[in-house]
Amino acid sequence: MILVKLNQANFEYDIYSLIKAFYPRENVGVTAEDKTYDEPADMVFEITYLPDSVRIAGKGEYSVDEVFAEDYADRIETKNRLKRKLYEILAAHTKQALPWGTLTGIRPTKIPLKMLEAGGSDAQIAAHMRKEYYVSAEKIALSTAIAKRELALLNRLDYENGYSLYIGIPFCPTTCLYCSFPSNPVAAWSGRVDEYLRALEREIEYAADAFLDKHLNTVYIGGGTPTTLEPAQLERLLCKVKGSFSFAHCLEFTVEAGRPDSITKEKLSVLREQGISRISINPQTMKQQTLRTIGRRHTVEQTVESFHMARALGFDNINMDLILGLPGESLEDVESTLKQIQALAPENLTVHSLARKRAARLSIEWEDYKGYQMVNTQEHMDLAMDYAARMGLEPYYLYRQKGMAGNLENVGFAAEGMAGIYNILIMEEKQTIVALGAGSITKRVFMDGQARRCENVKDVAQYIGRIDEMIERKKRLFEDKA
Ligand code: SF4
After folding, report:
1. pLDDT (0 to 100) of residue 427
2. Domain carrying residue 357
3. Cα(279) to centroid of ligand 1, in Å?
């Protein structure tokens, strides 16, 4: 265990995240209290905030004692200086450089995006990201290229009058090993899905009424797995959405079909008839053995069949999600998956780095899986980039999560004109997203860039029973002038 003792509570989470990025498999404790941990610490740091300086002292493996001047005039600057100094110590000791440097947040593209909006040049962005955050040349180039594409796509939106709609279907055929989303086994809930839809319809009615004067720009139905709904239920939901909102300003309508074991021709036909412009069919891997390990009860053949079925029905914008760093997968396995995806030629490809989330089965049952190799390196990401390029797909959105394999990133690639705008909106907080369904989070974005949120309860039964309260929460969020 690595223990960091502070003389006062300040920047604990930033310190924790940076150390965790260097030591992903170690337990890390950061505390300003005299806290005791069950595990003995084999590395101890003491960070002392002094009146005009900060001292970092290491014991055990890290025998360092460094003091740097600090005037505390700007909290963000203080945080960045502290992270840089800590990074230098950790990088020197581990002989490792992190691709994203000291950036531990989930949206590294925010920095180049903000600088581009202010008229910054590529050279200015590169100098800033290198000097302030120690970001590698590859990641500077990637995030700047993505920020430019984001900017071009976001320019199509009307921030002031536009908004987006998210609808969550929190049911799945089975629960994947790494899942941290609202997901419930559909078999156990099949008797109450209609009740769930009724509650959703109440929220849809509220949103349609409250946003009557605004322009609906994008719609995303995710989850969970929306195609766990029966064809008639899917039709009921889509007809309700189509009948409740004006689609005159809508740029895209995505349904995340997701799991191939939930997709049928009948369901795809319903999506097609209702004018869905973009769907996702997510293999995660094309290696059968891994699918079994991660608890996805579908076959590689089902993925291929679903894809061909969607094509035959006329879907011309299909996304496929992959995860790198899955248990037991080698670089050759990843390449084999990418080759099979290339043969299908989707218009969108989203490449995730496996993230170990606290609530996921992977963390809860960690003892059973920690013997597996779960590797994701820059080489894996480069391979994915290379295949995406061969498919004619360009990177257009990027985000990071806590506990990601290899401390890398998730990247969305798309063919020209096929990018999912909603994916950028959810990351960049540029437009209000009204989110309906259990576990969904509504985000109200103000014109000055500030955002405020309100959450729906995650538990499906609670959501159904407390639907009036969920609507009230949104009313309060949107009526509040502040
Ligand atoms: S399909 Fe997605 S939402 Fe459903 S269990 Fe798997 S990761 Fe979770």
Report:
1. 84
2. 162-471
3. 16
What letter represents residue 214's amino acid? K
Measured in residues, the chain has a length of 482
Q: Which pLDDT value is given to residue 25?
A: 77
Q: Quick one: CA dihedral 281, 106, 395, 153, positive or negative?
A: positive
Does residue 13 register a pLDDT over 60?
yes
Query: Does 406 share its domain with 314?
Result: yes
Cβ-Cβ contacts under 8 Å for 233 (sequence gap 6 or more)? 193, 194, 197
* Spatial separation of the C-alpha atoms in residues 78 and 281, rounded to whole Å: 45
Minimum-distance ligand 1 atom for the alpha carbon of 295: 6
Report CA(328)–ligand 1 centroid distance (Å): 20
The stretch 137-164 carries a mean pLDDT of: 92
Q: Which of 259, 280, 350 maximizes ligand 1 atoms within 8 Å of its Cβ, making it the mutation to test the pocket?
A: 259
CA dihedral (380, 410, 227, 169) in degrees, to 10, reads 150
Q: Is the pTM of this model over 0.85?
A: yes
Q: Over the stretch 224-267, which tens digit does the pLDDT of each residue have?
A: 999 999 999 999 999 999 999 999 999 999 999 989 999 999 99
pLDDT tens digits for range 315-358: 999 999 999 999 999 999 999 999 999 999 999 999 998 887 77
Q: Which residue has the tokens 């369901």?
A: 267
- 291 and 433, same domain (yes or no): yes
Question: Which of 176, 294, 302 is the best mutation target for the ligand 1 pocket, counting ligand atoms within 8 Å of the beta carbon and taking the most?
Answer: 176
For helices 122-133 and 75-94, the axis angle rounded to 10 degrees is 70
Q: What is the pLDDT of residue 448?
A: 85
Comparing C-alpha atoms, which of 265, 257, 309 is closest to residue 283? 257
Q: Name the domain count of the chain.
A: 3
- Same domain as 208, residue 131: no
Flag whether 34 is in a domain.
yes
Buried b (16+ CB within 10 A) or exposed e, 134-158: bbbeebbebbbbbbbbbbebbeebe
